[in-house]
Q: What sequence folds into this?
């Protein structure tokens, strides 16, 4: 028994020893794993370039380790470029973005306002982010694209402090959906002292649903991240050592709130409480900024940032709008300078000889530059009624005697002009508001008058409701109503010489044809006459045999085509079956030519002159511009006072300009292909031209439109068959038919004779 018990005791002791050794191994392995995880966690918070290369940067590399060195050198190269190739040392902009927005939103910033930053700009994204367009990108290690981007935002500030704190005075944290007026931003920052702790942006305390839930003291706030946050060098220096603490002590899911809390705690400042920060850092609380909803002139005159612009197209469209607005301001400045020059020249009191050829354009354009303040011309200056420049009355509607519709809605461009002029008037009144201790605020526009003088400019008489506010001394606010008289002067005419290098460019004329034998004969005679003067033309005819056309007319048409070919006229011919479809005909005609050929789509009802093709060559630029000439269309001779149907003249009695006709166009074949060509599903006449025009509107190709007196539409009876046309085509057909009846004056005389 003793021996058996001894064996059992020895076995038990041996088992416990083995178990103890295994347990120690497990504890050691577990401790190693926990230590490794804690190490990586601490390294991600203490983000520096050296530690990035040693630990956290390894997470960016591939398994073979070769990609790590490449990315490290790329990161070092980016940092070096920012330090040595900045436009100035004023500002560094850090844009927070994500992988899915790098080649859209971030790219649009890089194309628009990014290159004009008075300093430099970097994009910050997740560790695995890559750009196909070579953006200046910092892929932050251990950072993903999760939202809210609290870690990304704080580590971006840490990175900027570690590498650029001594190279720039100001640091701007921006989102990838904000537009920045960099010129105004530079003026704003240069007026401030970067050596003082400053934390600038639109102040926020949270919306009403979040009130009391953000753990903010009553006197605390934060700078809203959307419109952008600006820190001085002094602020970022004080903040940077405490970023690790702030990341560990987050009290909300809003990264801008937490940045504000961190700045308040360790720098002891809040976001600027100044009321005008709401307009300087503009955030559209009603949603994305859209050009369909006009931006108030007050915002455009003060804002530095505009937020939000959620898509690449929105950013590009707003940039184009901003450049237009800037161009308008420059033109006004130029006009004012010329006005000053003209006034100074009058003060110099030169004699007539000294006003010779050298200064002709100033002395003779003085009145044009200054504008006419004689609102009502003297009666003796008028020869007849048409010489009187009448005023247009504007309130909720527009009343004018120069339009067929005397009462109509106020056009968009007139609304924009009124808004801009009212903003300029208020701005000029408030120019010395700080010195005088008062300012005037625009409240409402009651009514006004507008007159366009082709030589002087646009004249306005505006009835305005204003609020006069005095804030120095005894404060008062008084509503006032005033008349404002304004003249919007034309800018100086500018000319530039364009070398003509396309004089011998071949223009390929494409004509769709179905029936219409007599108009076709007239068109061919017209073309042969022009071809004798301009041999750099070719003709392509796409024929649709008409079921209603006699066999003789069809054979006669083909005989004319054969005769042209035998005469050596450069001609191409194609024939399509089925009912006439202008879209299919023109698309087939374009396929007869090479992609780099210049095409001109026209109809047999047009009368052409040789100067037309020089306009086509000059105004059509491959890859950049298409030419849509505005055609002069003849009225129906039955309703016109003209005695001859075949007389071709351009005046208000003979016809009208087809402002909304898009059927005649010159373009390069490659540009037609780039936008997708014609919609061949459209049958019959009409709508195919509008469809193609819209495609060019949505493309990067510029559309050039201008009246061309060398292109005249000869009147013919218009037949609108609702059985062969769609509803929209039928309505367009009727509109053209009725518009071509005659002038308002002739129709009035005819109706008066019949009624009386």
A:
């Amino acid at each position: 028994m003793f021996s058996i018990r001894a064996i059992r005791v020895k076995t038990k002791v041996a088992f416990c020893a083995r178990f103890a050794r295994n347990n120690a191994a497990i504890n050691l392995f577990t401790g190693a794993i926990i230590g490794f995880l804690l190490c990586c966690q601490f390294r991600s918070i203490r983000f520096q370039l050296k530690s990035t290369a040693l630990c956290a940067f390894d997470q960016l590399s591939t398994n073979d380790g070769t990609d790590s060195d490449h990315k490290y050198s790329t990161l070092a190269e980016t940092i070096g470029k920012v330090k040595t190739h900045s436009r100035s040392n004023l500002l560094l902009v850090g844009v927070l973005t994500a992988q899915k927005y790098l080649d859209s939103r971030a790219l649009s910033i890089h194309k628009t306002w990014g290159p004009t930053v008075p300093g430099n700009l970097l994009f910050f994204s997740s560790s695995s982010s890559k750009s196909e367009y070579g953006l200046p990108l910092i892929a932050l290690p251990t950072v993903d694209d999760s939202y809210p981007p609290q870690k990304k935002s704080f580590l971006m500030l840490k990175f900027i402090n570690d590498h650029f704190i001594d190279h720039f005075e100001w640091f701007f944290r921006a989102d990838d959906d904000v537009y920045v007026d960099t010129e105004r931003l530079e003026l704003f920052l240069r007026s401030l002292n970067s050596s003082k702790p400053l934390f600038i942006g639109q102040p926020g305390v949270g919306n009403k649903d979040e009130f009391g839930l953000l753990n903010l003291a009553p006197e605390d706030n934060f700078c809203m991240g959307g419109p952008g946050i600006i820190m001085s060098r002094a602020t970022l220096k004080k903040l940077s050592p405490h970023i690790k603490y702030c990341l560990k002590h987050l009290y909300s899911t809003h990264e801008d709130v937490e940045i504000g809390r961190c700045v308040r705690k360790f720098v002891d400042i809040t976001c600027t409480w100044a009321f005008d920060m709401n307009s300087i850092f503009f955030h559209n609380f009603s949603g994305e900024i859209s050009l369909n909803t006009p931006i108030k002139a007050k915002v455009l005159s003060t804002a530095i940032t505009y937020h939000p612009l959620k898509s690449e197209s929105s950013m590009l469209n707003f940039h184009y709008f901003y450049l237009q607005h800037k161009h308008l301001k420059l033109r006004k400045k130029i006009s004012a300078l010329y006005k000053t020059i003209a006034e100074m020249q009058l003060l110099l009191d030169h004699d007539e000889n000294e006003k010779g050829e050298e200064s002709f354009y100033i002395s003779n354009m003085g009145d044009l530059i200054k504008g006419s303040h004689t609102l009502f011309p003297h009666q003796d200056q008028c020869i007849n009624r048409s010489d009187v420049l009448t005023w247009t009355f504007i309130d909720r509607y527009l009343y004018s005697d120069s339009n067929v519709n005397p009462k109509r809605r106020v056009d968009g461009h007139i609304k924009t002009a009124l808004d801009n002029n009212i903003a300029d008037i208020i701005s000029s009144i408030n120019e010395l508001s700080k010195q005088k201790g008062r300012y005037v605020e625009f409240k409402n526009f009651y009514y006004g008058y507008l007159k366009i003088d082709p030589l002087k400019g646009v004249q306005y008489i505006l009835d305005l409701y204003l609020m006069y506010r005095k804030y120095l001394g005894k404060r008062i606010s008084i509503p006032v109503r005033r008349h404002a008289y304004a003249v919007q002067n034309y800018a100086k005419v500018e000319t530039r010489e364009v070398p003509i290098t396309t004089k011998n460019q071949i223009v390929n004329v494409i004509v769709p044809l179905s029936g219409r034998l007599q108009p076709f004969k007239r068109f061919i005679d017209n073309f042969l006459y022009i071809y004798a003067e301009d041999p750099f033309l070719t003709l392509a005819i796409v024929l649709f045999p008409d079921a209603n056309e006699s066999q003789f007319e069809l054979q006669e048409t083909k005989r004319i085509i054969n005769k042209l070919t035998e005469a050596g006229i450069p001609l191409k011919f194609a024939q399509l079956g089925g009912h006439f479809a202008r879209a299919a005909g023109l698309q087939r005609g374009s396929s007869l030519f090479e992609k780099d050929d210049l095409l001109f789509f026209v109809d047999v009802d047009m009368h052409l002159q040789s100067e037309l093709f020089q306009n086509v060559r000059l105004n059509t630029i491959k890859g950049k511009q298409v030419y849509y000439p505005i055609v002069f269309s003849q009225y129906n001779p039955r309703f016109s006072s003209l005695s001859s149907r075949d007389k071709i003249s351009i005046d208000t009695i003979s016809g009208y300009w087809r402002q909304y006709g898009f059927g005649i166009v010159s373009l390069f074949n490659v540009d037609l292909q780039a936008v997708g060509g014609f919609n061949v599903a459209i049958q019959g006449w009409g709508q195919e031209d509008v469809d193609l025009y819209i495609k060019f509107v949505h493309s990067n190709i510029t559309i050039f439109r201008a009246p061309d007196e060398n292109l005249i539409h000869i009147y013919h009876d218009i037949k609108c068959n609702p059985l062969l046309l769609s509803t929209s085509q039928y309505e367009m057909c009727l509109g053209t038919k009725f518009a071509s009846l005659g002038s308002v004056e002739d129709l009035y005389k005819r109706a008066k004779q019949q009624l009386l």
Summary: The CA atoms of residues 459 and 487 lie 4 Å apart. The longest helix spans residues 2-45. Residues 386-489 form one domain.
